[in-house]
Amino acid sequence: MQATIFTKFLRQTESKGMRIKATCNAGTLTRPWSHELSEQENHSSVALELAKQVEWFGDWHGGMLPDFSGFCFVRIVNVTKDPHGRFKTPVSHCQPRAFNTEEI
């Protein structure tokens, strides 16, 4: 089963601070912005938490969307690699931040 998680930054309001919202077809999760983390780490950490919450385990790769509106994370399933360890599918262009839900 393919799995995709999108994240976006939510600006501060009068009643709530800055947040990251992760969304997938199985649910959503919103967490406060962490000033100790980079932009990409903030998005990755919320996506990872949502992946665990909906029990989507495995290898994840992601990066910023072309319009800079957020990030997209894709679970890699049944993908082969070449002898140099690179993915043989177009998803290899989406790997600046990778995490594995089974390692945490």
Commentary on this structure:
There is one protein chain. The protein is α+β, with helices and mostly antiparallel strands and 104 residues long. The protein has one domain (4-100). The chain has one helix and six strands; from the N terminus they run βββαβββ. Strands 3-2-1-5-4-6 form a six-stranded antiparallel sheet, with helices on one face. A hairpin with a 6-residue loop joins strand 4 (59-64) and strand 5. The two termini are 21 Å apart. Residues 90-97 have low confidence and may be disordered.
Distance between the termini: 21 Å
Q: Percentage of helical residues?
A: 10-25%
Q: Secondary-structure element sequence?
A: EEEHEEE
Uncertain runs: 90-97
Determine the structural class based on helices, strands and strand pairing: alpha+beta
Widest sheet: strand order? 3-2-1-5-4-6
Strand content: 25-35%
Largest beta-sheet details: 6 strands, antiparallel
Shape: elongated
Tally of individual helices? 1
Instruction: Give the number of DSSP strands.
Output: 6
Mean pLDDT, all residues = 83
Radius of gyration: 14 Å
Domain module tally: 1
